[in-house]
């Protein structure tokens, strides 16, 4: 069996780091098994779905390293959903209902007040043709519900009907269909809800595994029933924990919280995002994984915890810094050039250990090129003036800093911070930064002399 997974976002906003978790889980699972990953846009809500959001989602996924094997759009597959709806109607499993949202809410409130679960009473099944015609004459349009198989022939006499599955994240799961309302599959305006579209697509596209957030667990039994009603066996399910902030707050793409696009623009590395999104809330340590191949090897659905996957956005910077510190020049070269930095591998090797983001290198390039706002404490003025005279002759190399400071130590008796800090401040304007032995050759003799008082 070829493993086929899918990620099916609604293009109604930009995806955030929370959305990236199921996308990455599905992609990694498919790649681990040598299978296929489908990006499928749930864009049947024509009012809220936007082409620009679909473009943004695809761009963000590719930036993360997710390269879909197939891209589908539900808006182009309406005929398939029409055929499925007709099949369910013909089987007596899809029925028209005319209640307004207010009427339904009043019924639910009344049921709660009486201590009963707010389950739909299947009143639509009792409507006569005359009653339906009257509603139509009033301008009402029906929504259509799927009749759950939780009875023995009389839909008004429900019985306990357990739907069970072995969840790859949560183990054995079971839900009683008698505790649930018949789901609406078609809205009053004739548009399809995601439930039916998703199931039809999963059948048509041969999806073998559905990996998604634990907020969908309650829907799974209903969906398995619809799969069977359409003559198909349901895929294997895995429901993972959801990413939340440390205070338990969920993420929303409509609020733009930690959107992938904003993280990219802020200089965060894709593997920092992928590492945090995949490893948080698992038995693995959250560490900066260097590439997708390594992350694929680490990935294991069985390692996903049942507890919440909470993270601190500040962790992204920690992971990012680790990736930047280990980043080879070849990986950074084009980006450094785009920043106007031409220092080559020597420059990158000297500064990367002090960069949280690749863009931080620009600060150190300014120090190399100048001008620099030199800082000299009054008590250090004579010392740095003498340092100018003791700068070793010839080409400035990696050995120059040691020779220079040793000469200054012998002449002035200074040591430690008093020996090094005044020179760092006058040459770089900073109290800390890359190793001075690496910076000196890049700054060059003329710049060094220009920054030291005569």
TrEMBL record:
The broad enzyme category this protein falls into is ligase
Residues in domain Aminoacyl-tRNA synthetase class I anticodon-binding? 376-452
* A Gene Ontology biological process term: glutamyl-tRNA aminoacylation
Q: What is its main location?
A: cytoplasm
Glutamyl/glutaminyl-tRNA synthetase class Ib catalytic domain residues: 3-316
Q: Has the keyword Zinc been applied to this entry?
A: no
CDD domains of this UniProt entry?
Answer: GluRS_core
Q: According to the UniProt entry, where does the motif 'KMSKS' region sit in this chain?
A: 250-254
User: What residues bind ATP, as annotated?
Assistant: 253
Query: Could you say which residues form the signal peptide?
Result: none
The catalytic activity, as recorded, is:
tRNA(Glu) + L-glutamate + ATP = L-glutamyl-tRNA(Glu) + AMP + diphosphate
Which of UniProt's keywords are assigned here? Aminoacyl-tRNA synthetase, ATP-binding, Cytoplasm, Ligase, Nucleotide-binding, Protein biosynthesis
Q: Which GO terms describe its cellular component?
A: cytoplasm
Q: Which PROSITE patterns match?
A: AA_TRNA_LIGASE_I
Q: What positions does the record give for the motif labelled 'HIGH' region?
A: 9-19
What's one Pfam family here? tRNA-synt_1c
- Which EC number applies? 6.1.1.17
The reply to whether S-adenosyl-L-methionine figures as a keyword in the UniProt entry is no
Report the domain of life of the source organism: Bacteria
> Where's it found, cell-wise?
Cytoplasm
- Whom does it interact with, and what assembly results? Monomer.
What is the protein's known function? Catalyzes the attachment of glutamate to tRNA(Glu) in a two-step reaction: glutamate is first activated by ATP to form Glu-AMP and then transferred to the acceptor end of tRNA(Glu).
| HAMAP family for this protein | Glu_tRNA_synth_type1
| Designated name of the protein | Glutamate--tRNA ligase
| Species of origin | Roseibium aggregatum
Gene behind this protein: gltX
């Amino acid at each position: 069996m070829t493993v086929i997974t899918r990620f099916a976002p609604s293009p109604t906003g930009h995806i955030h780091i929370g959305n990236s978790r199921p996308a990455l889980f599905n992609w990694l699972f498919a790649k681990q098994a040598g299978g296929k990953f489908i990006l499928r846009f749930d864009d049947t809500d024509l009012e809220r779905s936007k082409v620009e959001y679909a473009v943004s989602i695809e761009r963000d996924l590719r930036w993360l390293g997710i390269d879909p094997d197939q891209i589908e759009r539900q808006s182009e597959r309406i005929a398939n959903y029409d055929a499925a709806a007709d099949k369910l109607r013909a089987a007596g499993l899809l029925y028209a209902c005319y209640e307004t949202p207010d009427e339904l809410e009043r019924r639910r409130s009344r049921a709660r007040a009486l201590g009963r679960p707010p389950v739909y009473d299947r009143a639509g099944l009792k409507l006569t043709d005359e009653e339906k015609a009257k509603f139509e004459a009033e301008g009402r349009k029906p929504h259509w519900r799927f009749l759950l198989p939780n009875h023995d022939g009389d839909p008004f006499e429900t019985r306990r009907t357990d739907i069970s599955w072995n969840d790859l994240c949560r183990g054995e799961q079971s839900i009683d269909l008698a505790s649930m309302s018949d789901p609406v599959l078609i809205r009053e305006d004739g548009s399809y809800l995601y439930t039916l579209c998703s199931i039809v697509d999963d059948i048509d596209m041969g999806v073998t595994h559905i990996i998604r957030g634990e907020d969908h667990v309650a829907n799974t039994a209903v969906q398995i029933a619809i799969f069977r009603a359409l003559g198909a066996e349901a895929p294997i399910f895995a429901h993972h924990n959801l990413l939340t902030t440390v205070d338990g707050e969920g993420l929303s793409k409509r609020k733009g919280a930690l959107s992938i696009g904003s993280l990219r623009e802020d200089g965060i590395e894709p593997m920092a995002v992928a590492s945090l999104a995949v490893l948080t809330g698992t038995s693995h340590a959250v560490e900066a994984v260097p590439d997708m191949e390594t992350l694929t090897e680490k990935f294991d659905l069985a390692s996903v915890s049942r507890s919440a996957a909470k993270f601190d956005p500040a962790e992204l910077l920690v992971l990012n810094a680790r990736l930047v510190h280990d980043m080879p020049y070849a990986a950074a070269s084009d980006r450094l050039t785009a920043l106007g930095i031409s220092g080559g591998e020597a420059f990158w090797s000297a500064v990367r250990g002090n960069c949280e983001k690749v863009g931080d290198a620009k600060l150190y390039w300014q120090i190399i090129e100048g001008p620099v706002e030199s800082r000299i404490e009054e008590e250090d003025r004579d010392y740095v003036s003498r340092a100018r005279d003791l700068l070793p002759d010839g080409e400035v190399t990696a050995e120059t800093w040691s020779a220079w400071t040793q000469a200054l130590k012998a002449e002035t008796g200074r040591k430690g911070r008093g020996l090094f800090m005044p020179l760092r401040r006058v040459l770089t304007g900073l109290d800390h930064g890359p190793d001075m032995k690496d910076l000196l050759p890049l700054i060059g003799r003329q710049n060094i002399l220009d920054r030291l008082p005569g």
